[in-house]
Specification:
Elements: H1 2-30, E1 43-44, E2 56-57, H2 67-78, E3 85-95, H3 106-120, E4 125-135, H4 137-141, E5 143-144, H5 168-171, H6 202-205, H7 215-218, E6 229-230, H8 232-239, E7 248-253, E8 263-265, H9 274-277, E9 283-286, H10 304-313, H11 420-432, E10 455-460, E11 463-469, E12 485-495, E13 501-505, E14 509-511, E15 516-521, E16 528-538, E17 543-544, E18 555-557, H12 580-604, H13 607-624, E19 626-627, E20 646-647
Parallel strand pairs: 3-4, 3-7, 5-6, 7-9
Antiparallel strand pairs: 1-2, 8-9, 10-11, 11-15, 12-13, 12-14, 12-16, 16-17, 16-18, 19-20
Helix pairs in contact: 1-12, 1-13, 2-11, 12-13
Length: 649
């Protein structure tokens, strides 16, 4: 009986694995994205973490960088098919512990909010701003050094982003410290000697961080809590976590004078970081950049830098990204011969008149542009442009000079704007990533419009198969990590010979963003021509998409029974879980699971082998059922994927 029970346990444990396998296989089949015929499934992207180098990516290709979504959102925005989007926003304003001296005056804050809403409100995007005062004397007195971290200081390598006087030039890594003439006999005498305030001299033996030596002015030892500066990460961990995850966080800090000290944004929409890090993601801007155009005499950029950072948060790249392909602050470019980081020459805009959805900043209504910090005069001369010439060695003749996603607006009097393509890409990103930012109660959240045209296919003389995409915003707040929601779909069918519109409703089903949805209409009449359109409905609150999709192409039902039509595009083929191949696989796996334990017992003649096998069967499901989750794609259970893993059990 003992042996029999162990054999039974081994068989059962492996059957558990089989059940998990079949369950996950069904999930992999069900979650398939809709891709229009002849559409690219990879390409250039401006989204983090590839934005710095604008790499050609097949692994991470955001929906709104895909040409077919970008184009359709562009058309839908022009046709006013998209609902308005009001964004919950928190402005974090540093002040002293006693609430005094907020870092940005209230008048400038109000002017900034007004400017923000006037620009984005043109196309239905507005910001519901809450002012959050962060009363912290320690941070209020100190400077924020962007893109520099404590561990970068004094490590023997000059870090460009830390090379400022505030850090004593990266703790001395970026200068010849001997030229400062440190008197070594004065080290450790309890008096701060700036000539010795470098890592090699142990920061004057710690003298410059002593309380009586005003550490807020002199302490540059990154290991000391009195350090006179702080990093971006330190600030956002202190301030942003107060707001929760359903808010676009914007913080204001004092910064040193450097060309990259204006604003920065972390993108919380990377699939593997969205749920973990969104709470402390957002934008941080220098205090002197906050205000409106009417404050240009005292506000750097006239309030445009915040709009630039919002553009990044909503999926936009720099207008010069297809020319200066490397990160501007890291120098270099253009990498015309593929000698740049990650061989990014595939995404360069070589022609100065290039207008394409697939290269550069992925917008055809912005021209390829060099980096320029103005729109006229000395700021726009060849000597002020980076790079000075294009990949063909030609001088710049015509380029975008008035866009928020360049740097031209930093010169006083230079106006800026977003193009229609940029507005539509931001609106797409709001649907795809930031549905929880909406300033609406849960009861009013609605799925977004189905923007991709449905495909109608004739299956036989009495039925039509309709294939379409679930909306990018399925109408659920971000508490659900899977990005799925229970939706139904309204399908309108109209005959070209009749005015009457037939409305059909699908059953409720859990769908993912952009998922392929298949509906079969078996009520068509021979000799009739039809057209279809769809929209999503959230059955929980009865909210439907703002408008119906664009109509499908006409489909004619012949009077005679046709030969079987070719299957739809391979990209949208749906596998039948009950197909012969599927049944055969299940039978084979089941047989192996039953026979294998018995085989091991017969060969080895001991039950310890079965015990080991049983243990491995209980644990192998973790190995086979952990895969990186990528937004809107199905799980591939047959191949290993790189990167981090996401458990689907």
């Amino acid at each position: 009986m003992k042996c029999s029970s162990r054999l039974t346990r081994a068989v059962l444990s492996c059957w558990v694995f089989l059940v998990y396998y079949i369950s996950a296989l069904k999930t992999a089949v069900a979650v398939k994205v809709f891709i229009p015929p002849n559409s690219k499934t990879k390409g250039c992207t401006v989204s983090f973490p590839y934005a710095s180098y604008h790499s050609y990516s097949s692994k991470f290709f955001p929906n709104c960088d895909k040409e077919y979504y970008a184009k359709q959102y562009y058309i839908a925005l022009k046709d006013k098919m998209l609902n308005d989007f009001r964004i919950n926003t928190a402005f974090h304003i540093l002040a002293y512990d006693d609430h005094s001296e907020p870092i940005v005056p209230d008048l400038l804050l109000e002017n900034q909010i007004s400017f923000l809403n006037s620009v984005f409100g043109k196309h239905g995007i507005t910001f519901n701003v809450k002012k959050v005062y962060v009363n912290n004397t320690h941070f209020r007195k100190r400077l924020n050094v962007p893109f520099c971290n404590r561990e970068d200081i004094g490590n023997g390598i000059c870090s460009l982003m830390c090379n400022t006087s505030t850090t004593n030039y990266d703790g001395g890594d970026c200068v010849d410290v001997d030229k400062f003439g440190c008197n070594r006999t004065s080290i450790g005498n309890n008096i701060c000697n700036q000539n010795c305030n470098f890592k090699i001299f142990k920061y004057d033996g710690g003298d410059c961080c002593l309380e009586q030596e005003k550490p807020v002015e002199n302490c540059v030892d990154p290991s000391n809590k009195g350090l006179r500066w702080y990093s971006y990460a330190e600030y956002k961990d202190m301030a942003f976590k107060q707001s929760g995850i359903e808010v676009f966080n914007v913080g204001f800090t004092s910064m040193p004078d450097c060309k990259w000290c204006g604003g920065m944004t972390t993108a919380p929409f990377v699939p593997w970081g969205a749920w973990k890090n969104r709470q402390t993601s957002g934008s941080i801007l220098r205090d002197i950049t906050i205000g409106g155009p009417q404050n240009s005499d005292i506000v750097k950029g006239g309030g445009a830098i915040l709009l630039h950072e919002v553009g990044h948060a909503l999926g936009l790249g720099h207008t010069f990204i297809g020319v200066e392909a490397g990160s501007f602050n890291m120098g270099g470019g253009p990498f015309c011969k593929g000698d740049g980081p990650m061989k990014n020459h595939q995404c360069l805009e070589r022609n100065q008149n290039s207008r394409t959805w697939s290269l550069g900043d992925l917008c055809p209504d912005t021209l390829p542009s060099p980096v320029a910090f103005g729109c006229r005069g000395d700021k726009i001369k060849d000597t002020a442009l980076t790079p000075a010439k294009d990949c063909d060695g030609n001088r710049w003749v015509n380029f975008t000079k008035n866009n928020f996603m360049g740097f031209n607006y930093l010169q006083a009097g230079c106006k800026a704007e977003f193009t229609m393509c940029q507005y539509s890409k931001m609106r797409c990103t709001l649907d795809d990533v930031y549905s929880s930012w909406q300033s609406l109660p849960q009861s009013l959240i609605q799925p977004s419009t189905v923007v991709l045209e449905p495909i109608a296919e004739l299956t036989n003389a009495s039925s039509v198969q309709l294939l379409f995409a679930a909306p990018l915003n399925v109408g659920l707040r971000d508490g659900n990590k899977s990005g799925s929601n229970l939706l139904s779909f309204q399908i309108e069918r109209k005959s070209i010979l009749e005015e009457k519109v037939i409305v059909m409703n699908t059953k409720e089903q859990n769908v993912f963003q952009g998922q392929l949805v298949v509906y079969v209409d078996k009520t068509v009449l021979p000799g009739t021509t039809y057209v279809y359109r769809v929209r999503a409905v959230n059955p929980k609150n009865g909210r439907a998409g703002h408008s119906f999709s664009y109509s499908s192409r006409l489909i004619h039902i012949p009077r005679a029974l046709p030969s079987p039509s070719p299957a739809s595009s391979d990209r949208n083929k749906t596998k039948n879980p009950q197909s012969d191949d599927g049944i055969l696989i299940v039978i084979i796996v089941a047989a192996v699971m039953i026979i294998l334990p018995i085989f091991v017992f017969v060969i080895h003649g001991n039950w310890n082998s079965l015990s080991v096998l049983s243990h491995s069967c209980y644990n192998c499901k973790r190995r086979y059922f952990t895969r990186e989750y990528e937004r809107g794609t199905s799980f591939d259970l047959t191949t290993e994927s790189g990167g981090k893993e996401y458990t689907i059990l």
